[in-house]
Amino acid sequence: MPERARTAQADALIGELQRQRQGRLTLFLGAAPGVGKTYAMLGRARELHRRGVDVVVAIVETHGRSETALLVDGLEVLPRLATPYRGHLVEEMDLDRLLARKPEVALVDELAHRNAPGSRHERRWQDVMELLDAGIDVYSTINIQHLESLNDVVHRITGVRVAETVPDAVFDRLRDIVLVDLPPGELIERLHHGKVYLPEQAAQALQSFFVPSNLAALRELAMQTAADRVDSDLREAQTARGIAAVPLRRQVIVAIDGRGQSEYLVRVARRLAERRDAPWTVVSVEGRAWPHDVQLEIDRALAMARRLGGATEVLHGDSVVDALLDYANRLGASSIVIGRTRDRPLARLFNRTITQQLIERGAHFEIVIVSTPEARAESRKRVADGDTSPMRLGDFGQATLISALFVGIAAIAKRWLDISDLSMIFIVAVLVVATRTRVAAALYAALLCFFAYDFFFIPPYFTLYISAQRGVTTALLFLATALLAGRLAARMRMQVVALRASNAHATALESLSRDLAAAADPGEVERAGRNALKRALDVKAVVHFGADASTIDEFDDKARAAAQWVIAHGQPAGRFTATLSTCPWWFLPLRGNGSTIGWIGLRPDDSVTRLAAEQQRLAEAMADDIAQAALRTRLVGDLQDARMTGETERLRSALLSSVSHDLRSPLAAIIGSASSLQHYGAQMDGQDRDELLDTIRLEGQRLDRYIQNLLDMTRLGHGGLKLNRDWIGVGEVVGAAVERIRKFVPGALVEVDIEPGLAPLWVHPALVEQALFNIIENAAKFSPPGKPVHVRAGDAPDGALQVEVIDEGPGIPEADRARIFDMFYSVERGDRGRHGTGLGLTIAQGMIGAHGGSVAALPGRDGRGTCIRITLPRTMPDVAHQ
């Protein structure tokens, strides 16, 4: 099987598995109201109920039909939720109660219904999506005119524009579709008998919607939709089983410009892509700042495309054709769908319309040109009435004022400048207009300045006649220069606008990345993200990791509910969305590792009615960066915790080993000697009792040294070691340490060699003595019998004190010399033997290090033994604090 076919089969299998884990949707589809969708749904539900399936009627509208109401009897009916609206109580489906009840199958009538204001979701189909996500199967009903992609088709057939629509993407969650059908004649007969509407409503419907030709067309649409869905399901099932290869789908691109037909183009592209089983993308090319109404239409069309399952992209460039063709080539698209461009006779004359350029330059693409009768009629009406947009009036008004201003400047400069020089003033005027407005306004300014130049400044004055040949040449060259300069300047301006937008986007992300890189924990990530969002979008911002929103003081109940929704479903909610849209905050999920780890909340000023598409994309990109940074800090924290856990476990094991082996020996000796004295002391002579007492004393002192080492190590580890410095001679501190060794280690041989004239030390005497004692004791422990430990003290070349403790034992392997100062580390040979807590040298290093010195392990003399070198800087006391 080819790789592409295997990938398609894997995708189909994964999709099937995902659908099995979620709730499944069964739709009862009708061509028109009254065909019996609810009746058929209830009949299927009663059959399931008889088979023992847990079925709950979430909400069913019988519309007063007694035969439909009879089918509800015997089924569990969920109480409805009363929602206050304009002084009345509106009953809606109780979504939270249904989720808590969690039946196997829920009956939810009228999928396209609009919920009462203040409900969690604006539309009932969104409630159904939440039920499916919760694993509840749903039976629902819908008429074909409520399908979003067919909205315009139904309008052309019936003349009625349906306001309540359902995105086609809902059909992607279908398990089954049941076509409920009646012939038009039978349906009209039911309408006459009052089985569809009340009598007064029925009379009106018979005159408009319920016309036999309309019903026949709607019936055909319903059957075609059901057939398409059955065909799509069959194709997916065959792909999952690997029966047949799936052909490569061809990408469809639809370009919109916000000129009145954007949403219609989106619907056309959706149907075209669905028929071809191809992915589709809606693009808009921005070369300058759009007027408010144009931008609003583009935003609505992009939002509709996302609801219908398409991708969206905003392109930047001063040439619409170049931007479209470049993007189509990058995407590997096959078809470009565009609307019929507005009438531009001059551009058509020179083959410069967008349509003509696409056909000329995009020969390898399929160019689909779409228009509507309504758009055509409206365009003709605007031309007949001479209507122009506020943006056009503003541009041409600016061009007129600037041209008039420069006419005045030229009139003043006329007495000093030649006629050819005056033309430069008008060219500057055209450039000023071009940098502030569009190309059309710049060309208008060029023509206006040309006629003003000819009328006021070229003899004969105050006429458009040019007498001299030189004057004609000057005027024509001026016109050509002005037109060319105006067009070039306007194009440069559009490029600057596009680059400015892209640069602002990149700068904001770069600044955020820099701040996030320095964040070491989730708290710092929250602060960095919050500050970056405030700077980039000029909004109030909250970044939060976790599910609990009750700690955010700025939130009211609606905001907290929206935040909880985002965590639960991983989808945007609140302002600018269709979920909890009355909330003043816009919430975006922070996703990572397949789950929602938090959210960001943005609150623009209350006067802001929408966020531009560029701002929305920037916010979503920043949310992704923040989520990745949070995952990084969590991973670092987990690794640090794991490392600390390992170190703690190692330390605990070493400490237990030390206690079990090294502390138990002196305790056993003490207990044994004390027990002997207790039971046999009377029979012993004085010498035996003295020996046992000496054993108790020596082993107690040994135990005291072990415990003292542990306490010293604890003080070093917690920073509790304080230096009480005083002057002391080198010989005095070395001699004290040697005297203790001879006392606690009988038989130890120590030779001391101290250079004469050594200056005294400004140190903590007891700590330095303890460090020397630990090092000398360690050396004496492993020196062969009869071999002394050499202690030498002298000045180092840099003026510091250097003390060396040298033994003639077996030595330390080179690989272990750097590790012998680690806590609880012991080697089986050399200066760190099997016995001892393994803390002596560690404590010595810590005490010397507290004085700014160092301890190092070196080879002994002639390659035998070990030399432990202590280096202590000669620190002087602070006179100011004496």
Label this structure with key terms.
24 strands; alpha/beta; flat; 6-stranded parallel beta sheet; 5-stranded parallel beta sheet; 882 residues; 26 helices
Write the layout of secondary structure elements.
Blueprint: H1 3-21, E1 25-30, H2 37-50, E2 55-59, H3 66-72, E3 76-77, E4 81-85, E5 88-92, H4 95-101, E6 105-108, H5 124-133, E7 137-143, H6 151-158, E8 174-180, H7 184-192, H8 199-207, H9 212-241, E9 251-256, H10 262-276, E10 280-286, H11 292-307, E11 311-316, H12 320-331, E12 333-339, H13 345-349, H14 354-361, E13 366-370, H15 373-385, H16 390-413, H17 419-436, H18 439-457, H19 469-517, H20 522-537, E14 540-545, H21 557-569, E15 573-574, E16 586-592, E17 595-603, H22 613-680, H23 686-717, E18 726-728, H24 730-744, E19 750-754, E20 761-763, H25 765-782, E21 789-795, E22 801-806, H26 840-850, E23 854-859, E24 866-872
Parallel strand pairs: 1-7, 1-8, 2-3, 2-6, 6-7, 9-10, 9-12, 10-11, 12-13, 19-21
Antiparallel strand pairs: 4-5, 14-17, 15-16, 16-17, 18-20, 21-22, 22-24, 23-24
Helix pairs in contact: 1-9, 2-3, 10-11, 16-17, 16-18, 17-18, 17-19, 18-19, 19-20, 19-22, 20-22, 22-23, 23-26, 24-25, 25-26
How would you characterize the overall build of this protein?
- This protein has 882 residues and is an alpha/beta fold.
- Helix content is 53%, strand content 15%.
- It contains 26 helices and 24 strands.
- The strands form six sheets. Strands 3-2-6-7-1-8 form a six-stranded parallel β-sheet, sandwiched between helices. A five-stranded parallel β-sheet has the order 11-10-9-12-13, with helices on both faces.
- β16 and β17 (595-603) form a beta hairpin.
- α16 packs antiparallel against α17 (419-436) and α20 (522-537) packs antiparallel against α22 (613-680).
- The longest helix is centred in the last third of the chain and has 68 residues, at 613-680.
